[in-house]
Every structure is written in structure tokens, then in C-alpha cells.
Specification:
The protein is mainly alpha-helical and about 120 residues long. Among the domains are: about 40 residues, no CATH class; about 40 residues, no CATH class. Helix content is about 30%, strand content about 5%. It is built from four helices and three strands. Strands 1-2-3 form a three-stranded antiparallel sheet.
Length: about 120
């Protein structure tokens, strides 16, 4: 009996059809659970590589979900033209490389990370 393996990767050249959503309850496509699953299944050798390129803080993530109301609240207050979160009290936070480094502990360098992707890496 022959089985065929179909790729689940989406064709980036194929446009996604226009969709309309009820903005009172829009769908969310963020999955910290999947990220935690990938992280927990890294081999020690892979973890060493992650640490070597300066992303060790990602190995310590433990939040398996993000409350939908929090995501919607942030989206509602995020200004894409200035990369700024505008809070109701008048305070604003501009997101840039330095802020991401400070919050997530990710490196802020000009080093390039070369990704070699293939079907087996998914």
C-alpha cells in the first residue's frame, strides 16, 4: 500500500482570498503552545546553537497561551505607521530593536542568521 506525503506548506505566490470577519470576535492566529512544543523538543545540540547565537532567553519561555482580550487590546492601540502602542493614559511605547532586546533579552546585532529550510525541518 502506497502512501503519499503532501506538503502542508502554503504557496507564497498564491494570494489568500479576501475574508471578512466579525470584528467583535476576530480569529487569532498566534500559538505560543506550538512554539513551546518546538522549544521543548530541541536536542541539547540545538539548544547550544540557540544559546550561541544569543537567543538563550527564548529557551526559558513558559507562557503557553496569550489571553485573546490582551491581544485585541494591544492591536486596538498599536499604530503601525509609528510602531507605537498608545495607552489610554496618554503614555506611548515605541517598539524598536532596543525595546525588544530589553523585554525579551534577544540580541541586537548586525549578525545575520542563515536559515536553511527544507521539508524535513517542518
Amino acid at each position: 500500500m502506497e502512501t503519499s506525503h503532501k506538503s502542508t506548506m502554503k504557496d507564497p505566490a498564491k494570494p489568500i482570498p479576501n475574508r471578512t470577519f466579525d470584528m467583535k470576535d476576530p480569529p487569532l492566529m498566534c500559538s505560543t503552545f506550538k512554539l513551546l512544543h518546538v522549544i521543548s523538543n530541541l536536542s541539547e545540540k540545538q539548544k547550544v546553537v540557540v544559546r550561541d547565537i544569543g537567543f538563550s532567553s527564548i529557551l526559558d519561555l513558559c507562557c503557553s497561551s496569550v489571553p485573546k482580550n490582551l491581544v485585541l487590546w494591544l492591536v486596538d492601540r498599536f499604530d503601525t505607521s509609528s510602531n507605537t502602542v498608545n495607552l489610554p493614559n496618554g503614555f506611548s511605547l515605541t517598539l524598536n530593536a532596543a525595546v525588544v532586546k530589553s523585554i525579551l533579552g534577544l540580541p541586537m546585532t548586525s549578525s545575520k542568521i542563515i536559515c536553511k529550510r527544507n521539508e524535513a525541518s517542518y
